[in-house]
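Quick one: co-fold with adenosine monophosphate.
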Amino acid sequence: MSEPKAASLQEIGSCVGGYDPKALPVATAREFLDRLVPRLQAVEKLALRSALGRVLAEDIVSPIDVPGQDNSAMDGYALRATDLAASGDTVLQVAGSGFAGGGIAGAVGPGQCVRIMTGATMPAGLDTVVPQEFVRVDGTRIAVATGVVRQGENRRLAGEDLARGATALCAGRVLRPADIGVLASLGRAEVPVFRRLRVAFFSTGDELRSVGEALTPGSVYDSNRYTLWAMLQRLGVDVLDFGVVRDVPEALEAAFRCAAGAADAIITTGGASVGEADHTRMILASLGDAVFWRIAMRPGRPMAIGRIESAGRSVIAFGLPGNPVAVMVTFYALVRDALLAMSGATATPTLALRAASVDAVRKKPGRTEYQRGFVERTAEGGLQVRLSGAQGSGILSSMSKANGLVVLGHEQGNVAAGDLVDVLMFDGLG
Ligand code: AMP
Ligand code: MG
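Sure, here it is.
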């Protein structure tokens, strides 16, 4: 597909208000990425159960009313509200029974009612269901006391869940369990979804050893490829692991070229700052277009963003810092939503909790800070968050002990113990 020439990264920056690559607020970086990333177009049809977690590619318009007919919401007796006496008992003749999946044939006359089960179609002319526990049965007659039921109660209307012709689900939705159920209630066996985004990643650094290798003095195990793998797995993208790449320009360039040929996006860690071995920036610039940021955030200040043209496609590269916590924080704060947008998903803001900070935290306005915290309920029923350990950007164990990230916004100053802070939780109902 040939597209009009994309704006250069510099041009994108000039369209984003307050863009300063040397002191870039998180919100501005997010806006830049949203403008930069291309959206997947390729669609595939999947069997309903295979579509869980995938991005819906088309609006789904309901071809039927759900439910298809007015039906009972209770086990009881269907009746005509106009038959109910204003005072005292109403006695009605039971004219038949209706079960779920069936109805009752024939007309039901005045003064008559029908024994009905939950889900059974309402007999023509009857508009109300009195639950069986409110009824006294005497042979083929029932007595209903005044006031136990009002007109229209315990009856579900045709189309009250989903009306025929209405949009049931919009394109761009990441399909969750309830959506899969909604699609089933419309009788859909197959669903159009965008193909999975392919994300390649590799670690850079001469000091890195892969799991299974022996450590030598000064070397560390490469944990970033594992946290990245895990975060990407949860995002539902196809993951391509390109291993550890040495801090050698030729090796890095080959890895970028190879990854660009195979993936829609590339994530690298390490070598994005101004250290001697920081070739990532140079190579990204030589392979396409690139910008280098100092983001007003902590942890995770340096970041390189590149766009590599490969076989007529634009592949987006995210050069993250090397420190293990900085990798996770920049991924959650910036990369995750960019990848979701690339996947075709409509943006849905991640909801933060407000919890009282147990700790006093020093914080300078002018950057966004992310702290690892553990949220719990207090004896009084409120929420509190406690920092989960040392906050250095290399300390992954305090990330592992945390159940969320405390986000101290760009403008925020010092936090006193007891102040309410925003927390992004790692887990929901899933
Ligand atoms: P860099 O950004 O390459 O200067 O790396 C910053 C710090 O993060 C250094 O202490 C690195 O050893 C560490 N680091 C870089 N990459 C990884 C990785 N893949 N796994 C664990 N630690 C890493
Ligand atoms: Mg390095």
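If it helps, The pocket of magnesium ion (ligand 2) is lined by residues 204-205, 270-271, 277, 322 (CB under 6 Å).
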